[in-house]
Each structure stands twice: as C-alpha cells, then as structure tokens.
Amino acid sequence: MSKIQMTTPLVEMDGDEMTRVLWKMIKDELINPFVDLKSEYYDLGLPHRDETNDQVTVDSANATLKYGVAVKCATITPNAARIKEYNLHEMWKSPNGTIRAILDGTVFRAPILVKGVEPYVKTWKKPITIARHAYGDVYKSVEMKVPGPGKAELVFTADDGTVSREPIHEFKGPGILQGMHNLNDSIDNFAHACFNYALELKQDLWFASKDTISKKYDHTFKDIFQDIYDREYKEKFEQAGITYFYTLIDDAVARVIRSEGGFIWACKNYDGDVMSDMLATAFGSLSMMTSVLVSPKGVYEYEAAHGTVQRHYYKYQKGEETSTNSIATIFAWAGAFEKRGELDNLPELSKFGTNLKKATIETVEGGEMTKDLALITTAKNVKTCNTEEFIKAVRRHLEKYYA
Ligand code: NAP
Ligand code: MG
Is the distance from the beta carbon of residue 307 to the nearest atom of ligand 1 less than 6 Å? Predict the structure, then answer.
C-alpha cells in the first residue's frame, strides 16, 4: 500500500510521562505505517520547556496560528513537587493556559461512546458536547474576608474619572465578599465559537445561565448570544436544520438528563468546569473524552481531556506492566487528520482519521480493552490488554481498512 499523503504539516506538541509513551507507540503503530506524516514537531515535555524557558510552548501556539491544526499530548503543569522532581528553573505556567491565551479559544469536550460501556443515564443515546467558556468569572475573581460590621460597595472608576457605585451589603458581623468580571469581547468570541461548532457538527446548540437572578451579569451573556445569533447565524442554522435554544441553567440540567443527547451545551466557565466532569463520568469514563480547542481565529487544537497518567508512568519506569487507555490520544490524532484533510481538500487523509476512530471503537466492541474499561464494561468475554497490546489490537483492525 502506498502511504497517504499530506500537504500542510500538523503542529505536533509532544508531552509528558505516560502519555508521551503512548504518543510514540501511536505514531509507530497507527500512523507512520499508513500516513506519510508531515508534522512540525514541538517538544512540550517538561525538560524541554524548562530548557527553552517555556518559549517552545509559545512557539507551538504561534505555529498553530500559522498552519491551523495542532495535536497535543498531555503535559505536566508544574507544582512544587515537580520543581524538585525535574529540577526546574521556574514554576512554568500551564501549557494549556499559555496556548489558550494565544489562540483565544473555547474548549469543546465530548464523550467517546462504545457499546458495552453504557451511560449511567438510560435515555442518553448520543454524545453531549460541552462548550466551556474559558475566561473570567470566579476563575479571575478577587475575594475578601469581612472581619466585622461595615459597608461593602461595588465601585467603578471610569478613565474619565466618573464614578459609579452600588451598595452590596451592610454587614452587621463577619462575612465574605467576592468581585468578578468578564469581557464583552471574550463572550463574543465564545458565542461565535459555539455557533460555528454547532454548524460544523450539525447539532443543536443549548446555552444556559441564571439571567433571572443575575439581571446584568448573566443577562449580558444571554443578550450577546442572542444578538450574534440573530445577526449572523439564524439563517445558517435554519438552512442546516438545527436550532439555538436558551434556557435557565437549572432548567437546562433537568432537560439534559431527560434528553437523548446529540447536542452542544454551551456553559459559562464554572458551569462548564463542573458539568464536564459530571458528563464524562456519567458517560462511563474520564479517559473516554475528546477535547478540542476551537479558536475564533479559525484554528484547531486537538488533545485528550485527561492528564499525563503519572501513577501509570511510575510503574512503567520500574518496568512493571501498565494498562493505560490510549483512546483519547488516538482520537486527538484522528480528529487532527480529519480536520487537516478537510482544510487541504485531501479526502483520503480525512478518511484515515475517521477509519482510525472506527478501528479503535471496533477493538473495544470486539472485547479487547484496557483495564479501566474492562472494570466497567457490560460485555462478556473481555480480554484485558496491556498498554501496548491494545494499540497493536487497534492496528489489526485498522489494517483491514487498508488491506
Ligand atoms: P490524570 O493523568 O488524568 O490521571 C488521574 C487518574 O485517572 C489516573 O491515575 C488513572 O487512574 C485515571 N486515568 C486518567 N487517564 C487515564 C488513561 N488514559 N488510562 C487509564 N487511566 C486513566 O490526572 P493526574 O494524575 O491528576 O495528573 C497527572 C499530570 O497531568 C499532572 O502533572 C497534571 O498537571 C497533568 N494534567 C495535564 C492535562 C493536560 O495536559 N491536558 C490535564 C490534566 C492534568 P488510576 O491510577 O486509578 O488507574
Ligand atoms: Mg474540573
């Protein structure tokens, strides 16, 4: 078989620990035998981030802006323990945060459904994709402990010196205070990313907030979404046969549970944080979740939603057998090939991405899976694979498409 050709390189962001091990196995077994891989390689492994004073992370994000599609391995976000472990010069920031700040995106997370790993919610037949706004609110808030009686006010001083004031509360005793913000530009970008992604997946878009209680803050989110929808997307949605639906967050939660799935749920930052873990777990497993950063600048970064699986890596380093699930990382590569093929008009490349996903799902549905899934599956006659065996099993299935 002649290998599938590419025209534009993928931006390849390598990472850390067990996922770095998976990365190489996936390339060796599932990609290089089939695709004449063109990639611009950036080593975001912690030692190289440290050597380059984290410049490599910035470079990889800029390359993504240049080429349009990136695939990222999970990376360590350093803390005090990692500074010791890797003898770091500095506590480098989260690479995802750095990349997000440059690409300015919205993160979409969707569960990977396989027969035999059943959602806990019986009505769910199709995946539910969470779109999480990744800026502001409580994640950029300032807080205060109120020691005792006194008056709290919200004060805004405009650049021209005009002062606006709102009383918050007359404290009679100790309490707590929090101030948070968001930006119309950031909410605009969030809305565009969600509407575009809904059109791309041809799925309905839901958005929810608490605008009845928060008549200025949350209401602004609602208004911005509605304005942008009416102005730029209403006709496109009608043509695509999909709908935009706004409701209150508590109503949304109730409807999500009763739904069949198959839609995108746009969430404010905090709601998205909480609801994505709830959804991933309710759909079966944290290691069966895809994640893609969609930027309003028209670029895409695919990754797994989980971390570097540190505990497994320490076992691997000691030469012990591991059974780490590579599905989310395989799907990140597959999604990147599908998108690169679509942008470059290379149907064979897109199809390879789709076949790679199919082969992976067929492997699990055929009874071969890693331990995390073997523990929760309803399937009979399960073979629990180690890390490498699973990837080799996917290869057997993939080869059938290219025999
Ligand atoms: P983690 O890597 O997601 O792993 C947490 C636990 O979840 C694992 O110990 C394992 O459970 C299970 N798990 C996760 N992925 C799995 C997989 N593919 N196959 C099988 N089991 C899986 O989170 P962490 O251990 O808290 O974090 C490790 C490092 O990852 C940290 O340094 C953190 O900074 C980084 N991180 C990176 C990203 C990213 O780059 N996107 C995201 C999150 C965290 P058992 O041990 O019980 O088998
Ligand atoms: Mg969370």
Answer: yes
